[in-house]
Amino acid sequence: PTFIGYPRSGRAFHFYGLPVHEYPDLIKICGHGGPPVDPDHRDAAPTPATTGNVSKLIKKFFKGVATTPSIYESCMYTNSPDENPVLDRHPQFNNIIIGAGFSGHGFKLSPVIGKILFLRAAHTWQLPWLLPHHQEGL
């Protein structure tokens, strides 16, 4: 099973889950968000700050599932201030194309992001799926 949950309140925290084939008989249940993580210490022991919200959600929605992680792994990704990616030319160097800040969504968007960056690099920025007034902001 695969699922995603958004809170009804205005909080930004949401969670998701999906099967994890490398760990038979387990399911990945994660919170999207959390404190900044030092990449040199990403596998540090979990703390209430990193597992608390997910444990509460598991207790509420998944009766009989342990609220303490069997395996804990932190995910590394960048966040832009508005959680939208940056897809554009460098402001000073026209031969550099930037694709960054995917806020944890880059992998699932990679086919279309690759096409957008290619079109931007090839100077053919007319994307057929955008309305003309949206193309000006790209």
Structural description of this entry:
The model is unreliable at 129-138 (pLDDT under 50). The radius of gyration is 19 Å and the shape is elongated. The longest helix has 16 residues, at 106-121. With 138 residues, the protein is an alpha+beta fold. The protein has helices at 48-61, 106-121, 132-135; strands spanning 3-5, 14-19, 27-32, 86-89, 97-100. A hairpin with a 7-residue loop joins strand 4 (86-89) and strand 5 (97-100). The strands form 2 sheets. A 3-stranded antiparallel beta sheet has the order 1-2-3, covered by helices on one side. A two-stranded antiparallel sheet has the order 4-5. The chain is built from 3 helices and 5 strands.
Summarize this structure briefly.
With about 140 residues, this protein is of the alpha+beta class. Helix content is about 25%, strand content about 15%.
Itemize the secondary structure elements and their pairings.
Layout: E1 3-5, E2 14-19, E3 27-32, H1 48-61, E4 86-89, E5 97-100, H2 106-121, H3 132-135
Antiparallel strand pairs: 1-2, 2-3, 4-5
Number of strands: 5
Strand-residue proportion:
15-25%
Distance between the termini: 36 Å
Any idea what the shape is? Answer: elongated
Biggest sheet strand line-up:
1-2-3
Main pleated sheet? 3 strands, antiparallel
**Radius of gyration, rounded?**
19 Å
Specify the structural class: alpha+beta
- Portion of residues within helices: 10-25%
As residue ranges, the low-confidence spans are: 129-138
